[in-house]
Structure to design on (464 residues):
């Protein structure tokens, strides 16, 4: 334990110095330093979690899902630790748990809720005993890091195989609306001798959606599905209903591969501009809840978190109470008042996620836009994804400020999306761009700030 205590003390000191010197977010470097001093640090911290370690992975929604889940667990009077700032690789996870431990490396927690980068699943489950794995969705994202979707799915599968789920020591909780995610439950290790699923799988999804009349959200933005073929036989997939992207109630017209039965489901979602009303099926119970977050994509985050607390045997009251106390996670539908102007910060990082955000904000007549595009390692070096995102959802008359390392690329994309050049202001420097955007925003309007990941970190540092 002396080695662990020394590593923790040093890591906390590095975090404090990083913050004091304003050298960055301090979410990963302290973990890297501490792991050098004690390679078993994460393993030692994980052992101290008394009930469950829960890993949440997938392309979109991890941070919000973890934030909701942590809040629901706290409503059950549980002690929870999680990497709430979204540093989701192994050093960042180590740093987060270390920061929430004592100087001697003592961690007082019933649950650890861990957001995990898809490519980091193998490393995490090799070091820490994970009892619950949640997979939110799989969309193309940072192709230079992850490769195509089947590669991403394989990395997650390898991480799952290092857990005890196949031996009945946990549960795999999957988005049943995603035909690629559901293949993770087809692993022979999760089937019994007759080929039927073991009691190791739980699925969530959406049944029906409608939109408020007159809202900025009026229906699905046209988007090419990234999964069109059956993962089992490569036959064509047909949909009873499509939610967005390739998520929905699907069936293969050749082999019969289909969406599995859902244990936790949104039987009906009524989408409003700033929230959604949901009839939630929670096992055998049905409850009406209001999700205080914009966008249909956040409904899946709620379902993923609700599926975990259902699987843990917690009552539905933890959800209803948790939603009344929930505060948005940094950069994920985060509301701010800046210089007396209302602002809403929403991360964009891949075609489907950006398209859903643009569908939400692009047509708001009372909205202004600031888009910040970076191509640092954490963003993905390849920014060609912006040509697959539906920036055409932005009303042609809207004014837009573009910023970031690749601001020129974004300006060109907006021009091809039909935004007049006279409505596009190019300012690569983010602080200056924010001031310009705020100056253009009237007191009765909302400034929608859409940054990529490292631009979001810079914005967070700017705003304190």
């Amino acid at each position: 334990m002396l080695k662990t205590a020394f590593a923790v003390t040093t890591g906390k000191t590095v975090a404090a110095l990083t913050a004091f010197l304003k050298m960055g977010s301090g979410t990963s470097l302290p973990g890297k330093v501490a792991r050098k001093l004690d390679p078993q640090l994460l393993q030692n911290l994980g052992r101290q979690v008394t009930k469950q370690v829960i890993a949440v992975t997938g392309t979109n929604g991890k941070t919000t899902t973890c934030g909701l889940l942590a809040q629901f667990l706290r409503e059950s009077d549980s002690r929870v630790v999680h990497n709430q700032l979204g540093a989701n690789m192994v050093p960042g996870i180590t740093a987060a748990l270390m920061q929430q431990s004592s100087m001697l490396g003592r961690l007082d927690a019933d649950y650890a809720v861990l957001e995990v980068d898809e490519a980091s699943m193998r490393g995490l489950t090799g070091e820490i005993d994970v009892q619950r794995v949640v997979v939110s969705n799989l969309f193309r994202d940072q192709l230079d890091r992850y490769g195509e979707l089947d590669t991403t799915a394989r990395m997650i599968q390898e991480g799952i195989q290092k857990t005890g789920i196949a031996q009945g020591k946990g549960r795999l909780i999957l988005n049943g609306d995603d035909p690629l995610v559901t293949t993770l439950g087809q692993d022979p290790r999760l089937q019994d001798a007759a080929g039927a699923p073991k009691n190791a799988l739980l699925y969530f999804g959406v049944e029906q959606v409608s939109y408020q009349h007159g809202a900025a959200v009026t229906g699905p933005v046209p988007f090419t599905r990234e999964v069109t073929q059956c993962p089992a036989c490569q036959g064509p997939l047909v949909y009873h209903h499509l939610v967005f992207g390739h998520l929905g109630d699907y069936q293969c017209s050749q082999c019969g591969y289909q969406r599995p039965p859902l244990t936790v489901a949104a039987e009906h979602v009524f989408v409003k501009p700033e929230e959604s009303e949901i009839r939630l099926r929670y096992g055998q119970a049905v409850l009406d809840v209001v999700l205080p977050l914009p966008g249909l994509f956040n409904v899946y985050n709620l379902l993923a978190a609700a599926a975990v607390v259902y699987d843990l045997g917690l009552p539905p009251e933890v959800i209803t109470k948790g939603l009344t106390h929930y505060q948005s996670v940094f950069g994920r539908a985060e509301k701010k008042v800046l210089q007396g102007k209302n602002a809403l910060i929403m991360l964009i990082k891949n075609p489907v996620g950006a398209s859903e955000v643009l569908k939400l904000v692009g047509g708001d007549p009372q909205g202004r836009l600031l888009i910040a595009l970076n191509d640092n390692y954490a963003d993905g070096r390849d920014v060609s994804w912006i040509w697959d995102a539906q920036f055409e959802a932005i009303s042609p008359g809207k004014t837009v400020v573009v910023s970031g390392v690749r601001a020129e690329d974004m300006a060109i994309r907006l021009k091809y999306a039909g935004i007049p050049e006279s409505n596009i202001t190019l300012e690569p420097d983010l602080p200056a761009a924010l001031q310009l955007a705020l100056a253009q925003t009237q007191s009765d309007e909302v400034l929608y700030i859409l940054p990529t990941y490292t631009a979001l970190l810079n914005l967070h540092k700017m705003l304190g």
Remarks:
- The chain is about 30% helix and 25% strand.
- Residues 2-20 form the longest helix (19 residues).
- The radius of gyration is 22 Å.
- Confidence is low (pLDDT under 50) at residues 214-221.
